[in-house]
């Protein structure tokens, strides 16, 4: 229970207290009754209240000296009251009294109370697999360096493909087009990638894909192949990637010189954009696939008097991207499935769609597209062939798990590597990738974008004014 606060000393100042306050009785002077001095004149004799010529002439008046003293005391009292009010407001208690009596609101006027101890949960059944994946991703996806590198790679891709779209014409060889793309990317990165370790910092995300007509994906001109020359009636798909610190910007487009194929290109471009729009945090991949299929199959294309329904390739898919891994483990088919897997915040995806006038189903073509070191391959490979060991060392130093092709090896001056490569493939250290095709006589197209899923939005890194 609160105790009554003590009275102020000001109430006990003689002659200056409130008129309503209790005053001490003034004792009688020289045995005279109280108040009798008021009837005395200046010499102490009792008077009759009338004027006396011999009096001092100051009956009932206060002497100037006493008046000055009283005024000074009043001013001091007012100043003291003002100071005490200011001190009570400005000097809020910084520490608690003992025993504690000061309200805590006065100790923490801004409401910033101390935070309690925080202990992280251990990985128990309450921590879901999705939460564990999220915690591992959030280390990079909000990092400004990560975002800046992806945006830089996207700008390099935009500038390079702008050059390709303006300069690629019938009569050029696919080898020259590929070389021009790769020279441009390396120049814009300011990294030739010829010294050990340089290719791990930045470079091509995978071998440049240049596919014609029924070739759907994964064709690149390699040494020893017959030169392929671009023709007026060809449909050309260009698929290349740019990586910085292992994070790959993957984007593709299709171009044709004959307007006959415009509706084929429009169907696939629309399907890709639909997939990008539908994608989001907690969105089921099956819903994205269904949206892609619905849009693509709504298009038809007439080629030389025959009408074809544009079909999505059933056994190809888009994918998520992880550092140094172009295919991160999640797939986005172009036809509806029952897969209930969800997209998650912080994931990087490459939404790509392939449409065809053929069967809508791909098979392996002849030849080799490229190679990739398995991400779980041991550092010391279990092979006895010396050339295989040397080649393995070269791959690790220049590509890591980034996919590469024969042109890239020969550019580094590597010779007589086929036997060693076959040895690494047979032992599961390196994976080989073949070109992919639909039936001959058909035409296919591809469009692709790379984007990052963030909490409130997605950023489509590869978006440009062209597609």
What would you say this structure looks like, in words?
Keywords: Aminopeptidase, Cytoplasm, Hydrolase, Metal-binding, Protease. It is found in: Cytoplasm. This is Methionine aminopeptidase 2. The strands form 5 sheets. Strands 8, 9, 10, 11, 16 and 17 form a 6-stranded antiparallel beta sheet that branches. It is built from 11 helices and 17 strands. The two termini are 77 Å apart. The protein folds into 2 domains: 129-368 and 435-460, Creatinase/methionine aminopeptidase superfamily (Creatine Amidinohydrolase); 370-433, Orthogonal Bundle (Arc Repressor Mutant, subunit A), CATH 1.10.10. Helix content is 30%, strand content 18%. The protein has helices at residues 64-90, 104-107, 129-137, 144-167, 174-189, 198-201, 262-278, 285-296, 386-398, 406-411, 418-426, and strands spanning 202-204, 209-212, 215-217, 235-244, 247-256, 300-303, 306-309, 311-312, 317-321, 331-333, 348-356, 363-364, 370-373, 430-433, 436-437, 444-453, 458-460. The model is unreliable at 1-67 and 82-90 (pLDDT under 50). The protein has 467 residues and is an alpha+beta fold. Helix 4 (144-167) runs antiparallel to helix 5 (174-189), helix 7 (262-278) packs antiparallel against helix 8 (285-296) and helix 9 (386-398) packs across helix 11.
